[in-house]
Amino acid sequence: MAAVAVGGGIGALARYELATTWPTAPGHFPWTTFAINVSGCLLIGVLMVLVTEVRVAHPLVRPFLGVGVLGGFTTFSTYAVEIHGLLKPGSAGVALAYLGGTLLAAGLAVLTGVAVTRRLAGR
Fold first, then answer.
1. Which of these, 2, 32, 86, 106, is most buried using a 10 Å CB contact count?
2. SS3 content of the chain, % helix, strand, coil (to 5)
3. Its pTM surpasses 0.85
4. What percent of the chain is modeled with pLDDT above 70?
């Protein structure tokens, strides 16, 4: 639990720093959260291949990095709140683009992370 908690704190702080550095104006596409979630999903794909197929990792690596750091970095709650905030006249289209775009891009990012890591590792 300590590994997850410490990793989660690190990931959440990184996300917070990015969100405060590049805030989203009301009614606009939340590019920062989008980039955080997609890049986090890419890294989750890479990590899972590395710790399950490439080499035997310490038992705390996956909980610390996967559940902790990357789980704290990516954010479903902010994604949901941002969609809700965009569901207003004039920005509903942005909300739908964000909703679908994030799901598609995040899923493709995981698959890309897995495929590229496997290829680079010769698997």
1. 86
2. 80, 0, 20
3. yes
4. 100
